[in-house]
Automatic annotation (TrEMBL):
PANTHER family: D-ISOMER SPECIFIC 2-HYDROXYACID DEHYDROGENASE FAMILY PROTEIN (AFU_ORTHOLOGUE AFUA_6G10090) (PTHR42789:SF1). The lineage of its organism: Bacteria, Pseudomonadati, Pseudomonadota, Alphaproteobacteria, Rhodobacterales. Pfam families: 2-Hacid_dh_C. Belongs to the D-isomer specific 2-hydroxyacid dehydrogenase family. InterPro entries: D-2-hydroxyacid_DH, D-isomer_DH_NAD-bd, NAD(P)-bd_dom_sf. GO terms for molecular function: NAD binding; oxidoreductase activity. The keyword Oxidoreductase applies. Keywords: NAD, Oxidoreductase. This is D-3-phosphoglycerate dehydrogenase. SUPFAM superfamilies: NAD(P)-binding Rossmann-fold domains (SSF51735). Residues 131-307 form the D-isomer specific 2-hydroxyacid dehydrogenase NAD-binding domain.
C-alpha cells in the first residue's frame, strides 16, 4: 500500500536524528558515561566515530545522514568534517576552549551553529584555584613535609605560621566564567578582591563589590594574584617580568589559565629569585619536559593541567553538550551558543 502524505510526515517525525560523537575513545570513555549516552539516545541516534576514522579523516560513510555532532578534547577541526558533509548544521563541544576547532571560520560562513561546555569546566577550575590559594596561605605542603621530617612538634605548630585568607587582598586578572566563580567562592572569606579586566566597567565593578586596578597596581598591591584571562593574541605575554618583580616577598601567583599569558622566561626568572611563590597548572610545552627548570624549584606548586578535571565535571560537560543538541532539534534557545561576534574573544 502506498504511503499517504500524512503517513510520510509521521514517519519522518518518528525518525530520530543522527548525532555523530567525534572524539577519541579515550576522551569519550571519560565524558560519555552511561548517563550521558542514555540522555542522547532519548531523542537521537548516536553515531560513535571510531579512532581509525578520526585518524584517517575519511568521514564520508561515518557521517552519512548526520545532522549534528558532539566534539571534545582532541577532536578534528570543523573544516575537516563539515566541508564534505553539508548535512551537519550544529556542533556541540563537550569541552571548554574551541580554538582548536577553527570555530571562527565556520561561524563566519554562517552555515553552522556551535555551543560549548566551558561553564561546566569553570566550576572545577574555580575550586582548584581556591584550593591552591588556601594550601599556600596555610602552609599545607610545608607542614606536611615538616611532620614527615625531623622538625619538632611545637616548632611546626608555632614556628611556621600561616596566613588568613580573610586578611588578604586577592587580585583576579580576568572576570570570565572562571574568574567570576572564583570571586563567588572568595566572598564568604571576607577578603578584599581587586580585579583587572578591560571589559568590566566601573559600575559593574561596584555591583560586584570589587576594586578595578591596572595590572601594575594589582601586582604590587595583592599578595595573591590569580590569572583567568582568555588566551588571545591581545593577551599573549600580558604579564611582564616587571609585574612579577613588583609582587611582595612571599606573594603567590596562581595560573590555571594559560602559560602564554606570561612573558616568555619571566616566570622561571621570578621563581629563581626566590621572592615569590607560584601554583602553575598550564605550561608552554605539555607534557612538561623532565628537564624543565620548573621541576626543580621549591617555591612552585605544579599540576598537570588538571584544574578542570573531576569525575563530576566530565559528566556535566557531556550532559550539557547533549542538552544543547536536544534544544537544537527542539527549536529551543541554546544554553551555551557561541555567537559569531563573540568567537574571537573566547578562550
Amino acid at each position: 500500500m502506498q504511503q499517504t502524505t500524512t503517513d510520510q510526515c509521521i514517519t519522518k517525525l518518528a525518525r530520530r536524528p543522527k548525532v555523530a560523537v567525534l572524539m577519541p575513545e579515550e576522551v569519550r570513555s571519560r565524558i560519555f558515561t552511561r548517563e550521558v549516552e542514555t540522555a542522547l539516545q532519548a531523542f537521537a541516534e548516536p553515531v560513535f566515530v571510531s579512532d581509525d576514522t578520526l585518524a584517517s579523516g575519511d568521514f564520508a560513510s561515518a557521517l552519512e545522514d548526520v545532522t549534528a555532532a558532539i566534539t571534545g578534547w582532541r577532536s578534528p577541526s570543523l573544516s575537516s568534517f563539515l566541508a564534505p558533509h553539508g548535512s551537519i548544521a550544529f556542533v556541540s563541544h563537550a569541552a571548554g576552549s574551541v580554538k582548536s576547532l577553527g570555530v571562527e571560520n565556520a561561524l563566519r560562513d554562517g552555515h553552522i551553529r556551535v555551543s560549548h561546555s566551558a561553564p561546566e569546566i569553570a566550576l572545577a577550575v574555580a575550586e582548584f584555584t581556591l584550593t591552591q590559594i588556601l594550601a599556600h596561605l596555610r602552609l599545607h605542603r610545608e607542614q606536611d613535609a615538616a611532620l614527615r621530617g625531623d622538625m619538632g612538634w611545637q616548632e611546626m605548630r608555632t614556628g611556621q605560621l600561616g596566613q588568613l585568607l580573610a586578611a588578604q587582598n586577592v587580585g583576579l586578572v580576568g572576570l570570565g566564567y572562571v574568574g567570576r566563580l572564583v570571586l563567588d567562592r572568595l566572598r564568604p572569606f571576607g577578603c578584599t578582591v581587586s580585579v583587572y579586566d578591560p571589559f568590566i566597567s566601573a559600575e559593574q565593578a561596584k555591583q560586584l563589590g570589587v576594586t578595578l586596578l591596572d595590572l601594575e597596581t594589582l601586582f604590587a598591591r595583592c599578595r595573591v594574584v590569580s590569572l583567568h584571562a582568555a588566551n588571545l593574541p591581545a593577551t599573549e605575554g600580558m604579564i611582564k617580568r616587571s609585574h612579577l618583580e613588583a609582587m611582595a616577598p612571599g606573594a603567590l601567583l596562581v595560573n590555571t589559565a594559560r602559560a602564554g599569558l606570561i612573558e616568555a622566561g619571566a616566570m622561571i626568572h621570578a621563581l629563581q629569585q626566590g621572592r615569590i611563590f607560584a601554583a602553575i597548572d598550564t605550561f608552554d610545552i605539555e607534557p612538561l619536559p623532565q628537564d624543565d627548570p620548573l621541576r626543580t624549584q621549591g617555591n612552585v606548586y605544579l599540576s598537570p593541567h588538571c584544574a578542570g578535571h573531576t569525575r563530576e565535571s566530565y559528566i556535566r560537560q557531556g550532559l550539557a553538550a547533549v542538552e544543547d543538541v536536544r534544544r537544537y532539534f527542539a527549536g529551543e534557545t541554546l544554553k551555551q551558543e557561541i555567537l559569531r561576534e563573540k568567537a574571537a574573544v573566547l578562550a
